[in-house]
Design a protein that fits this description.
Elements (H helix, E strand, L loop, with lengths): L17 H8 L2 H21 L5 H27 L5 H18 L7 H28 L1 H4 L3 H32 L3 H26 L15 H9 L2 H30 L6 H27 L1 H18 L8 H37 L4 H29 L15 H11 L1 H9 L19
Helix pairs in contact: 1-7, 1-8, 2-3, 2-7, 2-8, 2-10, 3-5, 3-14, 4-5, 4-8, 5-14, 7-8, 7-11, 7-13, 10-11, 10-13, 10-14, 10-15, 10-16, 11-12, 11-13, 12-13, 12-16, 13-14, 14-15
């Protein structure tokens, strides 16, 4: 039987200094904040503060992010044709900072005007994010040619990503509550996260100024040609499909955090505690996952993390009968699985890119990461859309008061199923797509 996952790409080693590792990893303050807070706050903001119906809110969250499916490959193509990717980080990151604060500004009254405003500004913010995220994700394949060193780099990145998710995801709702809730509270929360994005932008731009980089190589002559090359890369194709489906599962769970806290465990600050329980353990288990990866390989470790996530989500079906402390412990187990799922998927991507570069002699990391980030963006956008559809189907009642309306037992069941069963199925079943993943061996000097 052919083993799951490719054999390692054998390349020349390149050890990165700690300063570069830290500098690159700090960019996760940007990706973590923008990848987390809209999925956490935006849907409840629309339904419970602006009074927009759940189904319409789901579309308003989904459509701007779906736009990035078109923008991200274009951003990859553009960044491939420029020398350094770092200027993209600075310009796009600072623009994103301002636009993020504007999302929650809510200058209009009325649910129609407010909903349209959020959709338009969110679309602009998502476009700016594409021109930060795509060059950022492309950089690891050019920073080092070491197979194991890419895992080390991703370990640093995911550790900071976990910290960014913890800070942004846990504190953003607290800022809303501490500053009066409703529209005013969300405005302050938007400013707080916008400032965090600006800090991450400046830190990663400055921290990677001395980073090694591959010499520029000729890319494929057109975007269409690059897309054909990417679609013909079987390991990348399998990994990308798995990543998209799993992102949808994670996005579904993120969208349900506040609803789960309000209507299942009935904890006022439950959203903050859930986030702390979910992300906190990831900061502690990264060294453990690194050892697991070295012993069992990246693909098998990715599968292990995904199945741990899915199993924990299914256990949460019993939440109505469990004390809060047990629920938080189960969420911590889910967070351990999430950490493994993230670090190994991210570490396998530059392996696919490096193999393509060695095979074709062309520099086109941006196109691969453009497709990758487009898929992630689509998945994370589908998550809230799926969750909103579940809420609508189960009769969830929206509110314009800034406080969640009381829900009947059917609506509460929808809240529970959307937070547990759907994420478990999407994240767990997606590992079957990795059956098509085989790491080709690149004929370069062996790595010690």
């Amino acid at each position: 039987m052919t083993p799951i996952g490719p054999s390692p790409v054998v390349t020349r080693p390149s050890v990165l200094p700690r300063g570069v590792l830290a500098g690159y990893a700090l960019g996760s303050l940007v990706t973590g904040a923008f990848g987390t807070v809209p999925g956490l706050l935006l849907l409840p903001y629309l339904t419970d503060t602006l009074g927009v119906a759940a189904g319409v809110s789901g579309l308003l969250v989904l459509l701007p992010k779906a736009w990035d499916v078109l923008v991200n490959p274009l951003a990859g193509r553009i960044s491939d044709r420029r020398g350094s990717r770092r200027p993209f980080l600075l310009v796009a990151g600072l623009l994103l900072s301002a636009l993020f604060a504007a999302i929650f500004a809510a200058p209009f009254g009325g649910e129609g005007a407010s909903g349209a405003y959020v959709a338009i500004v969110f679309l602009l913010a998502a476009s700016a994010y594409a021109f930060f995220q795509v060059p950022y994700v492309a950089m690891p394949a050019e920073l080092t040619d070491g197979y194991a060193e890419r895992t080390r780099l991703m370990t640093w990145r995911v550790a900071v990503l976990a910290l960014a998710i913890l800070v942004s995801g846990a504190l953003a709702p607290l800022v809303v509550d501490a500053t009066g809730g409703g529209r005013a509270g969300h405005r302050w929360s938007g400013l707080f996260i916008g400032a965090l994005i600006a800090v991450g932008t400046i830190a990663t731009f400055a921290g990677t100024r001395k980073a090694p980089s591959s010499a520029a190589q000729e890319s494929e002559p057109s975007l269409a040609a690059q897309l054909r090359v990417a679609s013909g890369n079987a390991p990348f194709r399998a990994l990308l499909l798995c990543w998209i489906v799993q992102a949808a599962g994670i996005g579904t769970m993120l969208a349900g955090v506040q609803y789960f806290a309000d209507h299942v465990i009935h904890q006022k600050a439950g959203g903050t505690f859930l986030f702390a329980a979910f992300v906190g353990p990831a900061l502690l288990v990264m060294p453990l996952w690194s050892r697991v990866g070295r012993r069992h390989g990246k693909p098998r470790s990715l599968i292990a993390g995904s199945l741990l996530f899915a199993a924990g989500a299914l256990v949460l079906l019993a939440s109505p009968e469990l004390p809060p402390v047990v629920i938080y412990l189960v969420v911590a187990v889910i967070g351990v699985g999430y950490a493994g799922q993230q670090v190994f998927a991210m570490a396998m991507l530059p392996d696919c890119i490096a193999y393509d570069t060695a095979r074709t002699g062309r520099r086109q990391a941006g196109v691969f990461t453009g497709l990758w980030t487009a898929g992630e963006t689509l998945g994370l956008a589908l998550g809230p859309g799926i969750y909103a559809l579940v809420l609508q189907t189960f009769g969830y009642v929206s509110s314009a008061t800034g406080e969640a309306a009381a829900q009947d037992s059917t609506a509460r069941l929808g809240v529970l199923l959307g937070f547990t069963v759907l994420p478990a199925l999407l994240v767990g079943v997606a590992v079957l797509l990795l059956r098509g993943y085989r790491e080709a061996t690149v004929p370069l000097a062996s790595e010690p």
